[in-house]
Amino acid sequence: MIQYLKFLFVGILFGIVLVKSEAVSWYRIYEMFKFESFHMFGIIGTAVITGIILLLISKKLKNINGGLMTVPKKEKGFTRYIIGGTIFGLGWALSGACPGPMYILVGTGAFSVIILILAALLGTYVYGLMKDKLPH
Amino acid sequence: MQFILDPWPWYVCGPLIAIIMFILIYFGKTFGISSNLRTLCSWAGAGKNVKFFDFDWKTQRWNLTVVLGAIIGGFLAHLYLSSPINIDLNPETVKTLNTLGFENAGQSLLPPELYSWDAALSIKGLAILIIGGFLVGFGTRYAGGCTSGHAITGLSSLQLPSLIAVIGFFIGGLIMIHLLFPLIFS
Fold first, then answer.
1. How many C-beta neighbours within 10 Å does residue B119 have?
2. CB pairs below 8 Å between A and B: how many?
3. Where does the sequence pass through the membrane (chain B) (predicted)?
4. CA spacing 20 to 30 A to A87: which of A29, B47, B144, B176?
């Protein structure tokens, strides 16, 4: 149990930051895709810049298990990323929530978002069914 | 302590999100929230029929724990760390939303026009939530990641596939908002 406690705390921090950043708001996602505010671009932009720096300076450091600080490499490809990404973007803009905010919003008391999570589970399941027939 | 209760600026939140990613990498894991959807399918027994879900979901318990924490974090932030706020949206955005039938834009996290139970259980509202959620779940697995896995982790580690996926996110989002929204909401 104790070993999971640290992940619980990371999750709590994640939930707090995403609520306080307003990135869980449907309105902020709409505004982002309208390019009418810098807010979301500022969040993602500074996250990526900070992430690049942290990963660069930690290259020689060891993780908690004594292994290297590595990020899993995504497979090479184009089709799956552009098509899958576009499908994801359509859903993200319509529902205003990507997978993290879906759970966080339930925590804020927006229980109708559970419908979204169930539908996302169904979407994931259907992808699993069709995976071998789709171009990747 | 008012600065805790106010919305946090983007230049505070962005680096904090990067630190969350970094902590998970330090713990020997990775920052990818959408993987939990696959794990939950596997937990529910989908692996019996579909190979994609045939893996030991217990190896992903750490990530489900992150999700549990995120729900708790959402609860804490909303109930104890926020004063009732209006989201400081661009007035132009508020005006456009008004013409699409969204009143009082920014006075809550989610538009009641979509997420109040009345709306969510109407035929149109339910269809919107189910289609939206389905596209997110299908698309994220097809693309091999979501905002956390591609936009944050993938771009931070300078991976080309993630850049392609993020471009896809925007193609989809722009089509939805600029072409489809006027048809769906009018």
1. 17
2. 490
3. 7-28, 62-81, 119-139, 160-185
4. B47
Confirm or reject contact between B122 and chain A (CB < 8 A): no
In angstroms, rounded to a whole number, what is the distance separating the alpha carbons of residues B140 and B13?
23
Cα dihedral across residues A84, A87, A92, A93: positive or negative: positive
Cα atoms found within 13 Å of the Cα of residue B117, Cβ hemisphere only = 2
Burial label, B163 (beta-carbon count in 10 A; 0-12, 13-18, 19+): middle
Q: How far apart are CA B137 and CA A98, in angstroms?
A: 9
Chain A CB contacts of B2 below 8 Å? none
Within 10 angstroms of residue B5's Cβ, the number of other Cβ atoms is 13
Chain A touched by B92 (CB under 8 Å): yes
Pairwise CB contact (< 8 Å): B136 & A120 = yes
Which pLDDT belongs to residue B78? Answer: 94
In the chain, the amino acid numbered B47 is G
Give the C-alpha distances (Å, rounded to integers) separating B147 from A77, A136, B112.
18, 19, 25
pLDDT tens, residue order, chain A (136 aa) = 788 999 999 999 999 999 999 999 999 999 999 999 999 999 999 999 999 999 999 988 999 999 989 899 999 999 999 999 999 999 999 999 999 999 999 999 999 999 999 999 999 999 999 999 999 9
The distance of A60 to chain B (nearest Cα, Å) reads 12
Contacts with B134 (C-beta within 8 Å, 6 or more apart), sequence order = A91, A119, A120, A122, A123, A126
Closest CA to B20 of A11, A21, A98, A93: A11
Residue B85 confidence (pLDDT) above 80: no
